[in-house]
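Appendix B: complex inputs.
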Amino acid sequence: EDQVTQSPEALRLQEGESSSLNCSYTVSGLRGLFWYRQDPGKGPEFLFTLYSAGEEKEKERLKATLTKKESFLHITAPKPEDSATYLCAVRSYNNNDMRFGAGTRLTVKP
Amino acid sequence: EAQVTQNPRYLITVTGKKLTVTCSQNMNHEYMSWYRQDPGLGLRQIYYSMNVEVTDKGDVPEGYKVSRKEKRNFPLILESPSPNQTSLYFCASSPDAANTIYFGEGSWLTVV
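Resulting structure:
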C-alpha cells in the first residue's frame, strides 16, 4: 500500500532562518509527487509537482526536490506569511487516488 | 475563473437526518473526489470518480454515498449522519488520475 510520511510534524522558525521539510514515500510506480500549502480552514493550494528523481522546482522562497525515496521542501529566508501547513502527496500507477501525508505545520516568527 | 465549488460551507445537523453536500467544477475535469480532514489524521479519501457514471471507494467510504451523473457535479450524500462524521470535507477535481488535483474551499459539517 502507498504510504507517505512527513517530518517534522511541526516546525518553528525565526524569520530568515532557512530549513527543510521532509516527505518520505513508499509507492509501487510513482506517477507524481505533489506539494500543497494549506492555510487554516481553507482548501489545500497546489505548489509543485515532481515526476522523477533528480527533478527540482522553485517558486519564490520555496524549492522542492525529489529522490527515489523522499522529497524535500526547502524554505529559504522564510517570512511570517509562509506560516501554513505543508502537505505532500503521491500518485502511483497502482491506483487512482492521491495519498497524502499528515503535513508539517510551519510557524515563522517575526 | 477555474474553481471547485462546494455547498454548504457550514452545516450543523442532527443524527440521522439525511444531507447532501454539493460539488461542482467548471474546468471540464474527468476526475473528481471527496476527502475528509480530521486533526491528526490528515486528508483521507472517501470516494472518487474517474468519469461520468464511474465511481469507486477510497479509504473511508463507510456511511457515505456519491453519484456522478454529470461531468461537472459530484455530490456527497450522508444517508444517516452520525457524530463521527463531524469533519471538514473537501471536494477536488483533476484533469485525470495522473495530474494535480484542485480543491474546493471546504465544508464544515457538525453532526450532533
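The CA atoms of residues 89 and 100 of chain A lie 4 Å apart.
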